[in-house]
Model the fold of this input.
Amino acid sequence: MADAKGSANTQRGRRGLERIWHAALISLQGLHIGWHETAFRQEAIVAIVAIPLSFWLGQDWVQTALLAGSVVLVLIVELLNTAVESAIDRIGPEWHDLSKRAKDTGSAAVLLALLLAAGVWLACLWHRFVA
Done:
């Protein structure tokens, strides 16, 4: 199997800590790629504020985990959406119904993750300051 540069997959020959280290570097590269996407960058900036805030706002570990986890979930889904869009774009620039469906459903997944995060945060804020 060839990687992005066309050579054989070098990860197969790695073992132990070397494999873990190499996988971590690839993951960091993925985050770097995600950072160049406007939506991911905006969501990551919100996460930089929201995740520490979740430790203050959450009244117990469950609330804290839901608050922080919902924000992290948005980032995960956004990265997956970027991966889908990149794979579709690699296939070709011409319009195709299946390409549109793939991109639209990826976008819908991001929307659902955002709505979930907003709902969790609004419920927690309501419970903490209003109820």
About this structure: The two ends are 57 Å apart (CA to CA).
